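[Meeting: bench + compute handoff]

Bench side (C.D.) handed over the final construct sequence. Compute side (W.E.) agreed to return the predicted structure before the next meeting so the bench team could plan truncations. Sequence as handed over:
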Amino acid sequence: MTKDEMIKQLLMQLNSLTMALNSLQQSFDAQTALIAQLNQTIQELKERLNKNSKNSSKPPSSDGFKKPAPKSLRKSSGKKVGGQDGHQGTHLAVISDPDEIVKHMPSACEGCPHYKMCKGTACIAEKRHVIDAVVTVNVTEHQLLEIPICMLHEDTRKGAFPTNVKATVQYGENLQALSVALNTVGAVSVKRTHEILSGVFNIPIATGTISNMVKLCADAVSETVNRIKQKITESGLGHFDSCLGRAP
């Protein structure tokens, strides 16, 4: 075989490999588009299946056998089940129109070349709401996103909620701090604190919930308070006001 014949044969092989590579690339692009379309379809179907009278405008009669069971978010107090005599019950409800939405993609997807495409087709696997008080009442909806088919690892990936978002609907840290401050620093009774939050911020927080917030705060600082008491007891000088108790 001459040199020219060898070059001609190599060029033919190169052209054949180039055509095969182009065919594979076209097939890959078609599969990528199909996966994106399927992910979008899955997202729409999941959101349609998850809709009920509590998280959409559908009437309760449309829930059928899939009607969501009511769940109590209050801690057990040892009392009988249900509202007590003279108590007007309140509860947290799922917010259908939140003020802010925070989406949580799977942390393992950070840096993935397909991150933007997957985020655009990711479906909502679960929602949790944080009701907090700022200047006005702000409701943040945390949406846990799920990638049905990861194009890089070919598995299912789901995001994670922040560690402080534990319930489907809960009160935020600002509202808890305000409730505790009113009852302790402001010396406002639990009932009056309930009335302030209900009247000013339109937040129907129960008196029992306010009491639990104050107790949790007291438990969190109890160790620090005990250390301060111990230091004062062991100190030879208490630095108390020498005029305390004197007549003006």
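W.E. noted at the follow-up: The first helix runs from residue 3 to 50. C.D. will use this when planning the next construct.
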